[in-house]
Amino acid sequence: MPELKLAARVGRIQPSATLALTARAKALRAEGQDVIALTAGEPDFETPIAIRNAAIDALKARGIVDRYTPASGLPQVRKAVADKFKRDNGLDYTPEQVMVSCGAKHNCFNVIAALVDDGDEVIIPAPYWVSYPEMVNFFGGRPVVVDTSSTGFVLTADALKKAITPKTKLVLLNSPGNPTGTVWSREAQQALADVLKDTSVYALSDEIYEKLVYDGEHVSFASLSQDAFERTITVNGVAKAYAMTGWRIGYAGGPMPIIAAMGALQSHSTSNPATVAQLATLTALAGDPVELPTWKKNFVTRRDMMVDGLNATTGVKCDRPGGAFYVFPDFREWLGKRHGDLVLKDDAIICEALLTRALVGGVPGSEFGAPGFVRFSYAESDDNIRKAVERIQKFGSELT
Ligand SMILES: Cc1ncc(COP(=O)(O)O)c(C=O)c1O
Question: Would you place residue 5 in the very low, low, confident or very high pLDDT band (cuts 50, 70, 90)?
Answer without folding.
Answer: very high
